[in-house]
Amino acid sequence: MCTAIITVGDTETGLIHRSVLGRVADIAGRLGCRSAASVDNLPASFTGAVLVRMRRDLDEVMAFAEAARRTGWVLGDLAAAPGDEPVPVLDTPDGRVWASSARGFELHGPDGVRYVTELAGLPGTARRTALMLLITPLAEAARRAQLLQIHEFRG
After folding, report:
1. Res 114 pLDDT > 80
2. Which of 33, 92, 141, 145 would you call most buried, defined as having the most Cβ atoms within 10 angstroms of its Cβ?
3. Exposed, middle or buried, 72 (CB in 10 Å: 0-12/13-18/19+)?
4. pTM here?
5. Is 98 strand, coil or helix?
6. Buried (b) or exposed (e) across 103-135, using 16+ Cβ within 10 A?
7. Peptide bond into 43 cis (omega under 30)
8. E strand or H helix at 120, and its extent?
9. How many CB atoms sit inside 10 A of residue 53's CB?
10. CA 89 to chain centre
């Protein structure tokens, strides 16, 4: 749900939540980084000079995110970077898990909303993390790619 897959050449290298791509695009747009500003317009494909600019843009976005102390949330394999509005992260038998920038993970179910610090089947507890760390897998994929693609994950 709301997840994209990163592909380097023909190899799938990882998943990234759409909220992370949205935050990258938002910051990149404010910084005038045109290549990274289009990262949330899926499907996206970067090669040649555009990919070279993308690498530089991602470095600038990560530096800004670190300097501005922007954060996201992690719970096991779930990682999200909600902005002003909460974003859906995962559907469970008990309801839908959302991530809120201020409150972390919440389960919206038939019994109402409750804060989630742990989920069955996922290791660890919910924690705030630096946005830069959530962007790193995309930046690393861009560094080693000759062709970088990002598209919706249907899994």
Report:
1. yes
2. 33
3. buried
4. 0.93
5. strand
6. ebbbbeeeeeeeebeebeeeeeebeeeebbebb
7. yes
8. none
9. 15
10. 11
